[in-house]
Design goal:
Elements lengths: L1 H18 L4 E9 L3 E9 L2 E7 L5 E8 L4 E6 L4 E4 L13 E12 L2 E10 L4 E9 L5 H8 L4 H8 L6 E9 L5 E12 L14 E2 L3
Parallel strand pairs: 6-12
Antiparallel strand pairs: 1-2, 1-11, 2-3, 3-4, 4-5, 5-6, 7-8, 8-9, 9-10, 10-11
């Protein structure tokens, strides 16, 4: 009887946890010295769609990521084509030369009280400051591992302990002199129901094959 109760409790907890996962859309911008680009994450359960926009708000390219089976589909809205991308999962590296500090300093972003985390790489004196919301953003770390992005803000964030439910509303990469190299910041976030159609390739798009 005890074993049966434990199984039931585990099932209830799992369902509750899944229902608490973030579902909705997060819009953000990427700022460098030379350019500003705009993106959005559309999230539902294990699926994440990333859209890149031009300055007129038109979608240029998209990625559809399944964090469950680690698949990745690239879509070109301009060429009306798509392709299945090979995935090279992120491989953890030594954090011996990373100095990770979670401060008590907070800043509010879209009704989220975000704590400031700071990571410094002693190898190249690059520092990334994050303002991190913690509210069941379960998609983000698996998404980073699958897409294996090259930005220091992504590489460092994966290595921060106890980051599973977290999402950086803002991250700023700085050089050894404190100059800002790259800023990623959320400009809108909508907690809303997302249609499954958001993660489907349009019927009139052509599969690109090498």
């Amino acid at each position: 009887m005890t074993k049966i109760i434990s199984i039931i409790l585990f099932f209830i907890t799992t369902v509750s946890f899944a229902n608490d996962s973030f579902e909705g859309q997060i819009s953000f911008r990427k700022i460098t010295k030379h350019d500003t680009t705009y993106f959005s994450y559309i999230v539902k359960n294990e699926l994440v769609r990333v859209d890149e926009y031009n300055k007129h708000g038109n979608i240029l390219n998209s990625l559809i990521v399944n964090t469950n089976d680690t698949s990745l589909i690239a879509i070109s809205a301009i060429n009306k084509m798509y392709m299945y991308m090979p995935v090279s999962l992120f491989q953890p590296f030594s954090i011996e030369n990373l100095r990770i500090r979670k401060t008590e300093e907070t800043e509010s972003f879209f009704n989220y009280s975000c704590k400031k985390w700071i990571v410094k790489n002693l190898d190249d004196n690059i520092t990334v400051e994050y303002f991190v919301a913690n509210d069941y953003f379960l998609f983000f770390v698996p998404f980073l591992k699958i897409t294996n992005r090259s930005e220091k803000s992504a590489l460092f964030f994966i290595q921060i302990p106890n980051n599973q439910n977290s999402f950086p509303m803002k991250s700023v990469e700085k050089d050894e002199n404190g100059n800002e190299l790259l800023t990623l910041e959320v400009i809108d976030i909508l907690d809303e129901s997302i249609s499954d159609e958001q993660f489907e390739v349009p019927d009139n798009y052509i599969l690109f094959q090498h």
